[in-house]
Specification:
The structure is a homodimer.
Chain A lengths: L1 E4 L4 E4 L6 E6 L2 E8 L9 E12 L2 E9 L8 E2 L1 E4 L6 H13 L5 E8 L10 E9 L13 E8 L10 H18 L10 E2 L1 H12 L5 H10 L3 E7 L9 E5 L1 H9 L7
Chain B binds a DNA duplex through α4.
DNA sequence: TCAAAAGTGTTCCGAATACACCCATGC
DNA sequence: GCATGGGTGTATTCGGAACACTTTTGA
């Protein structure tokens, strides 16, 4: 008799009894070595999928990959991967991002878990959706073994996507739009030094409406969460704009004091 | 040779080769009948946990159960259950709620998925957190086979909880507080007919600060999402208050027109 | 000198705040 | 009558919207 310990169950293999394992029973999460017909055994696949947002030329973009394997071979999809047995969900998501882009320590947020029985054509796979915000200017996609190619797509002009990735993407966009109005996380889409107009244009792209220049400046500067730098934009054919940095420390202090970001 | 189809993998049992299954390989989600050492095989447990919110005597309460089984036997915990192989996540959550309370078609919201490797002492169990808002006045807890007893606890005075349920609960409360300011879902905690003061007191309990009576009324009535009824409170030793109902249809229309609830 | 964007100032309006006051009911 | 909560009115303040204007740079 051969005993196998895995992460949720204990299996016993035996020539006579095909399968005995701990599993969910009628009265308990765990019944020790409950015998069951082999075809009643079930497991789930667990994966993470990442919506990677970027900002280029005034447009919000998302990074997609072309699948190199079935199912949906050749189609565009979000990048994702199965979660390892000893891996936390956020680590799995970070790994996916790093493998594809080479970027570490990027802002990431879990936004929803998708688990429809039929969302995967082959099996039951539950996937946890994360989105990340990258300053895509300093990013060079790495040819991954999973995918033929990767590319940035304007969120207003998306190709057909594999699985239920379109739904995942929509939910991610919705959550991002909501988050960005109440938390200063949208800044992650800009380079660390930016001008006020750049910030304004970013927010206009994110939220889908225009701000008055004067009022936007007034409001954001009054928050005192931007650190003015002694630098300006170079080589522009007009008055060069001052550069600013997001002041994380200051924001943390203000947050504790009860300040809440709002745009 | 015995072939077993389950939800994510195909297993082949064989006297010589202990285990062959499809699983994640270096280049793909799915490699057919990839041979691997038996102890490298892994699966996850997937569950849902429900934070059931109620409102009684001006306090926000949460429904907890006392575990009747190990691990954490005897300790208070959120109510939850493993997800069935052919069951959607939201259905699993609704079933859990119905089994415990007998209530159907209750407002529910998925708020976060908890998947730390060590969150469960026995195995790897990933759990999807849902919260529901019930009008607890018309609720009578059903003795469940899982739990010795159930009880409502003020969210400001919680017992020690099993697993990471305290973290789950905190995240649920945080998400609820945030949601309730931007969507009129908090109404689900009240009976269908309520007075303006009852609504105000609910919001004060939810958000943790006071409103000015006059201003609160003005604001909520100007939204035109409450339907005034030709009824009043009975048997009160003061001027009886008018009863109102939340006007779902009206809200839907306003929402499409761009109205956004804000308190 | 002109184009283009940076950056400032000012008026106007509506919404939020604070607070005062009257109303209906049971005891 | 009076305690209690229901319900209304109003003056003041504050922040946002709209818009006009000046400044600084490169070409």
């Amino acid at each position: 008799m051969l005993k196998v310990k895995n992460t949720i169950s204990t299996f016993i293999l035996n020539k006579n009894l095909p399968f005995i394992c701990t599993m969910k029973g009628p009265n308990s999460y765990y019944i020790s070595e409950y015998r069951l017909p082999i075809n009643e055994y079930f497991i789930f696949g667990l994966s993470v999928d990442c919506v990677i947002f970027g900002y280029q030329e005034g447009e919000i973009k998302v990074l997609l990959v072309q699948r190199s394997l079935d199912p949906f071979k050749g189609q565009w999809a979000l990048i994702g991967d199965l979660v390892e047995p000893e891996q936390n969900l956020s680590d799995a998501a970070n790994n996916v991002l790093e493998k594809l882009t080479g970027l570490k320590e990027i802002y990431m947020k879990q936004f929803f878990t998708f688990g429809s029985v039929d969302r995967h054509p082959l099996d039951r796979v539950v996937t946890v959706g994360y989105y990340s915000l990258v300053n895509s200017i300093c990013y060079n996609p790495i040819a991954s073994s999973w995918a033929k190619s990767a590319g940035w797509f304007n969120i207003k002009d998306l190709p057909e996507l594999a699985f239920d990735h379109y739904d995942i993407l929509l939910k991610g966009i919705e959550t991002l739009k909501n988050e960005v109005r109440h938390k200063p996380t949208g800044f992650n889409l800009l380079p660390s030094k930016f001008t006020l107009l750049e910030l304004q244009l970013l927010y206009e792209a994110l939220l889908g409406y225009k701000f008055d220049k004067s009022n936007f400046r007034k409001k954001i500067l009054e928050m005192k969460i931007l650190k003015p730098l002694n630098e300006t934009k170079k080589n522009v054919s007009h008055r060069p704009a001052k550069l600013f940095e997001f002041d994380v420390e200051r924001y943390k202090v203000l947050e504790v004091e009860g300040f809440s970001f709002q745009l």
